[in-house]
Design a protein that fits this description.
about 40% helix; Rossmann fold; alpha/beta; 10 strands; six-stranded mixed sheet; four-stranded antiparallel sheet
């Protein structure tokens, strides 16, 4: 049984159908990339899985149980966390305060919170050096590390990342995605939406390609990286992917 199973998901914005029967799965400890052009439905997929959007039809099973209709904080408690596009950190709070908010479900257990912070600091040493610094004064790369670290504070079974390298330099982007792979190697499954297709496929086990609300390609990441349709799409638009 897969850790996450998305079945025939249909989502509408008013009369506009954003997802037209999306189905995908993520196994425990697996890294899965979701590729697609702007507006293809990638973020909508993640938001629906994490409970921020309600589908018109279809199912989402996590650890074998339906999470459709569950509140977002309940889904986090089950072991599913999302790092949203744009980081969404709290600029006027310190690094440590942001991390503590990520562990709010354990807010009455200071020792547990401290242990989880220490693990985040071990993953991102820059954050340890700046733990008393206001989050809004961090560099873009450090803010993205903080956003990932905050999600890790709930010790998720599945970590969903929405465009983690957006706005970062190529060097920082490569470093961050390398760390994401390390997180996966430690046992946390990852569902990754990422604009940098080459790097996303390089760290992933499998991948899906979404176009206008439909999955048009899926398979092992290594094979998709060699697929001419994928290569052509990322060089000059996605028109060829679904053909």
């Amino acid at each position: 049984m897969a850790l996450l199973e998305v079945e025939e998901l249909r989502v509408f914005y008013g009369n506009i159908e954003a997802l037209k029967g999306i189905s995908l799965q993520v196994d425990a400890g697996e890294t899965v990339a979701v590729l697609g052009s702007n507006g293809a439905g990638k973020t909508t997929t993640l938001k629906t899985i994490s409970g921020l959007l309600r589908p018109r039809s279809g199912g989402v099973l996590f650890s074998g149980s339906s999470i459709i209709g569950r509140a977002a904080h309940e889904i986090v408690a089950l072991g599913l966390s999302q790092v949203p596009e744009g980081r969404r950190i709290f600029n006027v709070l310190t690094v440590e305060e942001n991390l503590n908010l990520g562990g709010y479900l354990m807010r009455g257990h200071r020792a547990v919170l401290r242990q989880r912070r220490d693990r985040v600091y071990a993953t991102f040493p820059q954050l340890a050096e700046r733990h008393r610094q206001l989050a809004g004064t961090l560099s873009g790369g450090e803010q993205q590390m903080l956003a990932v670290g905050r999600a890790l504070m709930s010790e998720p079974k599945l970590l969903m990342l929405d465009e983690p390298s957006l706005g970062l330099s190529p060097l920082l982007s490569k470093l961050l995605l390398k760390i994401v792979r390390q997180i996966a190697n430690q046992g946390t499954a990852v569902l990754l939406v990422e604009q940098n297709a080459r790097q996303a496929l390089a760290i992933s086990d499998r991948a899906y390609v979404i176009e206008t609300g439909n999955i048009v390609l899926s398979g092992k990441a290594t094979l998709l990286a060699e697929d001419q349709r994928v290569q052509k799409a990322y060089l000059g638009g996605y028109e060829a992917v679904g053909t």
